[in-house]
Amino acid sequence: xxxxxxxxxxxxxxxxxxxxxxxxxxxxxxxxxxxxxxxxxxxxxxxxxxxxxxxxxxxxxxxxxxxxxxxxxxxxxxxxxxxxxxxxxxxxxxxxxxxxxxxxxxxxxxxxxxxxxxxxxxxxxxxxxxxxxxxxxxxxxxxxxxxxxxxxxxxxxx
Length: 158
Description:
The protein is of the alpha+beta class. It is built from 3 helices and 8 strands; from the N terminus they run E-H-H-E-E-E-E-E-E-E-H.
């Protein structure tokens, strides 16, 4: 198993950060990494996600929601072709900090027989995508709710 882990502190309470994460239709307006996300964030449900790592082709997959704990965690599991080949358990975690801020953690645990082959070629771009999304989430959560940060995801054809 291999893991990619990122985190950022956001000057906004968990309720605000969570509301942005759960507003899937707005992702194309602000998210440079997950440029499309749809479905119901409920354990057992399938989502439809399109990610676009930097300098890579966009990929669409249908992960299954493992956990959706209000203002705490969203976790899903996706597979390449079938389980056990190349699996990714992606998660967003929110922790309230004493100063009213939120610590946002984004990570993914990769497993399966092809992890060594695929991850070496995509690890840097995936981690860069996580960081870009974290920064965009921070910017969106720390500004007025009606302000949209339009980025190049639309022009990339996501």
